[in-house]
Amino acid sequence: MIKSLEDIQTTNETIVAKIRSFFQSVITQTSVAIDLGTSMTRMAIIGKGIVLKEATYIGQHIQQGTYLFFGDEARLMYGKTPQFIQVIKPLEGGILSDFDGCVALLEHFMQKAILPYYKNASLIKPGMKAFIAIPSSATEVEQKATKEAFRKVGFTSVHLTLKPYAFASGARGSIFHHMPLFVADISAGLTEIAVVISGGIVCSKTIPMGGNYMDRQLQHYLQLKYGMMIGEQTISLLKDRLLNLQGTNDTQTARGKSLETGLPKSLKVTASDVREATATSINHIVDAVREVIESIPPELVDGVVQKGLTLTGGLAQVPGIADYISKEIKIPVSVTEHPDMATINGLIRLARQKGEQSVFF
Ligand SMILES: Nc1ncnc2c1ncn2[C@@H]1O[C@H](COP(=O)(O)OP(=O)(O)OP(=O)(O)O)[C@@H](O)[C@H]1O
Ligand SMILES: [Mg+2]
Fold first, then answer.
1. pTM of the model
2. Ligand 1, atom 3: nearest CA belongs to which residue?
């Protein structure tokens, strides 16, 4: 039977698609996006989606040096281990502070979430690519250490980008447009504020103020006000459950030790306790946002004011935080959807469009 020209064209296209999919199944490179956060690590396989979200904690046997607990399990053990085990947080302020611990933790996460996929991804293994966001305050040495850690874990190429590109992209979409994106990420270790436009950072500020600092402030406050010593994990839970900037006054009972007698004691902690304890941190964050606004070039002010500030990071989930900041800085403030996932979502987006307009180095 004689086929029409259109039929022949369709058949050719099908053959080309089949050949392409055959080669893809033989040599597909696995690309992985990693948001290595001070409190949480998120991993995603490009083209597949998010495959891991676990605490950045690791438990080590002190004498033997071996690692025993990883991620969420290690966090559960924090403050509850026998003397021969220490639970480490291998990142401080978004930067590697324990290189070996970090490599061991990443190796565990890779085994759990990435390698099973990688083994089945293709016949020939062309290696794995890593796309990572690091704080814009990281020094060259810290950048090199981060690259080195990921190479040790098994990545053949490691691409870094500055965090503001990632969370701005995760919260607001393309960072390559000519409209300024004003974004603040309030996380565990750091608060980073930036104005991003046309794939560049116009002005930014990073301060070592975030959830971890607030936890320490709350711990100190409860010691001074009630003479109570409360463990770090309980403090963090109290802050997550009670902190709100809407003025509501919920309570939560917590158990700890009396500083006076050393005996167990329980205490009803109120939301206003948490507000009072963390007020200076919140105000430091507002001051930092103000400083960034003051450094915005005049031509961009209109664009920034129109679209306002978008909040990302775990602390953006504090009820009332957007309204509070908005009243202080007098421009609209909103919270992005799933603010704690903005950095990893942005990394996925940036890794996918890696090409001419790249923010990776
Ligand atoms: N509802 C909430 N209210 C208050 N704080 C919260 C809430 N949810 C999470 N947090 C806090 O947010 C912080 C975690 O934020 P996030 O996951 O963005 O940090 P991270 O990415 O691990 O850290 P970083 O980016 O600074 O390295 C923790 O301090 C946690 O206690
Ligand atoms: Mg983060």
1. 0.90
2. 240
